[in-house]
Amino acid sequence: xxxxxxxxxxxxxxxxxxxxxxxxxxxxxxxxxxxxxxxxxxxxxxxxxxxxxxxxxxxxxxxxxxxxxxxxxxxxxxxxxxxxxxxxxxxxxxxxxxxxxxxxxxxxxxxxxxxxxxxxxxxxxxxxxxxxxxxxxxxxxxxxxxxxxxxxxxxxxxxxxxxxxxxxxxxxxxxxxxxxxxxxxxxxxxxxxxxx
Length: 196
Hints:
This protein has helices at 17-35, 42-49, 53-56, 63-87, 94-108, 110-119, 125-149, 155-173, 179-195. With 196 residues, it is mainly α.
C-alpha cells in the first residue's frame, strides 16, 4: 500500500489485475471518445486510470490491444443484451426485440465501432486476425439468436442476414442519428433487411 503522502493524501488500496484492467479500459474509452485515438497517449490513459503510463504495459501491449479489448467487451455486452431481449419477447416480437437491442447497443458503442473501422489498416497482422475472430464470433452468436427470432432460415442465409444487418449498422454507427424520425427510419431499414 502506498503512503498517504505519495498519493496526495489519499490511501490507495492495491487493486486486483482485472479491476485495474477495467479501469484502464474505462479511461481509454473516455479518452478515445474525447480526444480521438491518435491523441490519447498511453501516459494520458494511465493518468486518468490512476497509474503511470508504463504500468499499463503490465495489462496491455499497447493502444491497439486496448482498442481490441474494448471491442471484446462491447461484443460480449451486445450478445448478452440481444439474447436477453429475444428471450423476454413474445414470439411475434422476437425479431424486433433483436433489432432494437442491436441498434441501441451500436449507438451506445459507436465511438468504439468508429475507431475500429478507421484504424483496422493500422493494426498489426496478429491484431487484425484477433479482430476478425471477434467479428466472426459476433456473427455466429447473433446468428444463433436470429434463428430463435426467425426460425426456418438456413444457417447460411442466417449468416448473410446478420452480416448485412451489421454492415448497415456499422456504416451508420460513427454518426449519430438526428432525432426520433431518423431513429425510426433507421430501425425500419434494419428490420427490412432481416425480414426480406
